[in-house]
Amino acid sequence: MGGGYHARRLAGLLVALLAIGAPGLAGPRPAQPQSRPALTVFAAADLAFALEEIAAGFERIHDVTVTLVLGSTGHLAQQIAHGAPADVFFAADESFVDDLTRRGAIIPETRALYARGRLVLATRADRGPRLTDLRDLAAPGIRRVAIANPRHAPYGRAAEEALRAAGIWDAVASKLVFGENIRHALQFLETGGVEAAIIALSLARVPGIEHVLIDAALHTPLNQAAGVVTRSRDPGRALAFIEHVNGPQGRPIMKKYGFLLPGEF
Amino acid sequence: MDWFPLRLSLQVSLLATALTVAAGVPLAWLLGKRRFPGRDLLGAAILAPLVLPPTVLGYYLLVLIARGGPIGGLLDRLGIELAFTWHAAVLAGCLGSLPLLVRSVQAGFETVDERLEQAARTLGRTEASIFFTITLPLAWRAVVAGTGLAFARAFGDFGMTLMVAGNIPGRTQTLPLAIYDRVQANQMPEANVLALVAVGVVVAVLFGVGRWARVRY
Question: I want to staple A162 with a disulfide (CB 3.0 to 4.6 A). Which of A219, B51, B60, B130 is the partner?
Fold first, then answer.
């Protein structure tokens, strides 16, 4: 049992590790064979269902692969500011697009309003009586309420504004659970962790969830804007995607998910 | 079921493990076999990522490698992008794995009887020759054990990867990030499968390495 044997064994291990890992050094391996061009869309989480449907249509017409990256508007904006490889950014609040434009991360001429969002009060259908009024959240029977994190998610900020405007902030603040984004807040409700959630109307039509609109006068309007990211390798197609959402193919789908459309507000 | 996250995670963690071994074994030798000023400080600095919050590491790493940062800016001029690519995930994996590997290997080197190395030295062997023919062969179990741990740690990295590589499906979404994503979207069946796969891979690797090198974790 010479030492050389073990040294060779060890060297073999290292060579094997490198051999398996090193081909990756050559470059990223994309998910699909990249015969067709790809478009990376960073989008606010309230667009999860609507954009999935719209992107499918866009992929068919333009023969591209659309990758949707969903998250809170604030997080996505932060990543784009740090150079994340997005082609288009769909924010849930226009101020984030304007901020990125000022910082040179979004092409100013491509900025477009695409929707106005609505907040709803959502509850589980199998959990007692349906809530009809925001003030019901103050009742002792409601122990936990989910909203998106107001610090970086526009729908969370709007939810906080609405609770303050309704005069129940102090009663509800200690019950709040923050989701990373608005889809996450919905997940808290779906999995039964909370009795109620304030979420986007566009996400509310899922099985087992009941919802009622929250008076839009209680919060700053959720005017949602999009823009092409300056570093996009394919700004033409990126702009085409925004136009598709705002065009005859996209608008009916956005409407179906409860968004108010440009020209309607 | 999309298996890209598993493939990416294996690729990222294997590469991270190779890089960690390449950097960590010399560091472990320095810490275990050499006396020099600042040795304890170096040891503490290497150990720190093990206990620092991933958010702290992720934040610093991002600031360094983002386009505006000192390293990222330099690379940007060379046309290389690091932040929000899967290479950033490799870097995150290395940072998390290094302390585990160095700890394990250093302990192995320290148990090698110094008299054997001294004897070789009196016979005129070079330090490199002593390392490869005496120290490393006698401590090989520790190196293998550390390598297994390094792989498992890199495979499971979440916080740092999320911050420096983003969560882009088909590009930087590793297995842990995919699980996070599925849970947020309430796609529990898929989250379940992916989580089981993650447990399976890590346990299989640690068990396999343990059996092969006859080490106990």
Answer: A219
Amino acid at the residue B22? A
> CA B43, CA A252: separation in Å to the nearest integer?
61
Chain A residue with the nearest C-alpha to that of B186? A187
pLDDT per position as a tens digit, A190-220: 988 899 999 999 999 999 999 999 999 999 9
| C-beta of residue A196 within 8 angstroms of C-beta of residue A142 | yes
Secondary structure class of B78 (helix, strand, coil): coil
Q: Across the interface, which of A18, A24, A191 has its CB nearest the CB of B11?
A: A24
d(CA A58, CA A45): 19
Question: What residues of A are in contact with residue B144 (Cβ under 8 Å)?
Answer: 10, 13
Q: Which of B96, B71, B83, B82 lies closest to B149 in space, CA to CA?
A: B96
B42, B211 in Cβ contact below 8 A?
Answer: no
pTM of the model: 0.85
> Model confidence over B94-121: pLDDT tens digits?
999 999 999 999 999 999 999 999 999 9
